[in-house]
Specification:
363 residues, alpha/beta, Rossmann fold, 2 domains, 7-stranded mixed beta sheet, 17 strands, 21% strand, SAM-dependent_MTases_sf, methyltransferase activity, methyltransferase
Amino acid sequence: MKLESGGFYVYGASHYGQALMRYLEKIDLLPLAILDRAPRFDSYCGVPVEVFGDQTFATDLPVLVTILGFAGVTESIEAKGFTHIVETLDVFAAYPESLAFLNECGVLWMQAPASSQVDDSKCERLAPLWADAASKQLFDKMVRYRLNPSAEDYALPEQYEMYFPPKVKGLYDYPQLNVLDVGIYDGDTFAGFYHRYGEKIEKYTGVEICVSNVEKLKTRLKNMSLPEDFIDVERVAVGLPANAALVVKENASASTVEVVFDGQIESEHTVEAADLGELMNRVQCNILKMDIEGADYDALVQAQQYISANVPTLALSLYHRPQDLWEIPLLIEDLAPGKYDFYLRQEGHWYLETQFYAVPKSL
């Protein structure tokens, strides 16, 4: 791809758009403008950011797209009259060095320095524990991507409903399901469980810190013709120190969460801490699904006695912190050595929504 400064556009001003711009600035190849439907700033790297709306653009120029996972992007660009559209995966291939900038952008696992994103000795220990070829191949690809990001090692998300991978042997295979859903959100995963295992659900318990999400969950239950008490919902925060709590301030665009300690806890928005192990023991779950924005490992430490003694099925997230990729599976192996089959699946773009499934070998 041969481009000249001022002779193309970049579409999308989010994380990869910014990473690409930093690389293009480094090689002195800048676009005429960055196009975005809802820009958060007026310029980036000295290049204007223009609203992709009713303006007139130079539609004979190429457009480098930096967005994945949203339907209709290419069609909307074509509708403006552009004919030379470079899709995001092709941008990866043309400018692989831009991915190194993305990998240190500060979002979730993408933390600087990149050298901390792989622990060689622990990844070597984990590598032989994966139960199937798909998990082994994905793990190897993910490690290579972190060490030397490339288009070839970018894993596309698998095409199924999150938390319900079709080729994980024995997943959720119980006569009766007792699910603890930590980070239940609005009940989207519950709906997936109910659709597949409705008659087998003996008990479903949800943990959620946002009141607005609990209200959405109630609406979902109503729309499913289920009573509100079909799910026991607890508004607590697991994975926190005993003397801590969360202050959760909700709004329509983005809720904020802050950890506070004794002496600071006085807000009406406070969510008290709870011990995940005590909660699991109380509800006697045989399935734990958890996604709690980076507190996952600390919560699992709280639950180590229950996991060791009961070996429940685990559906966990590995993408919030760089070290989650190896620390969480190795923790589970240490708690229940040889008792689980481990599976790894990629369920979202940008190596987000990376899911770890630990299935008891007896299932």
